[in-house]
Specification:
The complex is a heterodimer.
Chain A lengths: L2 E4 L4 E4 L4 E3 L1 E4 L5 E7 L6 E6 L5 E4 L2 E4 L9 E3 L8 E10 L5 E5 L3 E6 L1
Parallel strand pairs in A: 2-12
Antiparallel strand pairs in A: 1-4, 3-9, 5-6, 5-10, 7-8, 8-9, 10-11, 10-12
Chain B lengths: L4 E3 L2 E4 L5 E6 L6 E7 L5 E8 L2 E5 L7 E4 L6 E5 L8 E8 L8 E2 L3 E5 L1
Parallel strand pairs in B: 2-11
Antiparallel strand pairs in B: 1-3, 3-8, 4-5, 4-9, 5-6, 7-8, 9-10, 9-11
The chains are: A mainly beta, B mainly beta.
Chain lengths: ~120, ~110
């Protein structure tokens, strides 16, 4: 079956530090890949996505590149801010046995940014 | 911006009782989902719904669970006889299409079974 593996958290950084959150996936088909972010007390919201190999998704200074050869979609940001503190979820969307697409999520990685 | 709304935000129930969790998806979306997140665990897929029927369901979604879209706007998840292990945060989501349309999530319902 499909699965998403993320690095364990929490990740604790100082403001302006470089961020990497690793994500690897297993899929039976050719999935689309997503990063979602969850702020305290809220639902998940889309951060960025990539739909084919070598695509780079980007938003709000965050980037991730779809690497088919390594089945990875690592999230990066060059300079984090306190406001980036949240839980980040890597996800894939692949076709299920019924023919429709099922988004599958990783465990989530908590990011804490200190001033 | 339109959003997915869920009610209630917190539900406490006794083991064996039935609960109904309610969601209002974004009005022009076609696909609807329920996910759950047990504290500290991953976000788990329960069920997807399209064209007034279940399109996919996970192993978690057994006979104790059911979904309904009774009136064209609400989307409900019913748990017939709750167990302690059903305690979790339940998220409703909707999307316009597949496979690349992102999911829009509600803020979740925290279900506590005592």
């Amino acid at each position: 079956g499909n699965s998403v593996t993320q690095m364990e958290g929490p990740v604790t950084l100082s403001e302006e530090a470089f961020l990497t959150i690793n994500c690897t996936y297993t899929a039976t088909g050719y999935p689309s890949l997503f990063w979602y972010v969850q702020y305290p007390g809220e639902g998940l919201q889309l951060l960025l996505k990539a739909t084919k190999a070598d695509d780079k998704g980007s938003n709000k200074g965050f980037e991730a590149t779809y690497r088919k050869e390594t089945t990875s979609f690592h999230l990066e940001k060059g300079s984090v801010q306190v406001s980036d503190s949240a839980v980040y979820f890597c996800a894939l969307s692949d076709q299920g046995s019924g023919g429709s697409y099922i988004p599958t999520f990783g465990r989530g990685t908590s990011l804490i940014v200190h001033p | 911006e339109p959003e997915v709304t869920q009610t209630p935000s917190h539900q406490v129930t006794q083991m064996g009782q039935e609960v109904i969790l309610r969601c209002v998806p974004i009005s022009n979306h076609l696909y609807f989902y329920w996910y759950r997140q047990i504290l500290g665990q991953k976000v788990e897929f329960l069920v997807s719904f399209y064209n007034n029927e279940i399109s996919e369901k996970s192993e978690i979604f057994d006979d104790q669970f059911s979904v309904e879209r009774p009136d064209g706007s609400n989307f409900t998840l019913k748990i017939r006889s709750t167990k302690l292990e059903d305690s979790a945060m339940y998220f409703c989501a909707s999307s316009y299409g597949q496979p690349n349309s992102p999911l829009h999530f509600g803020n979740g319902t925290r279900l506590t079974v005592t």
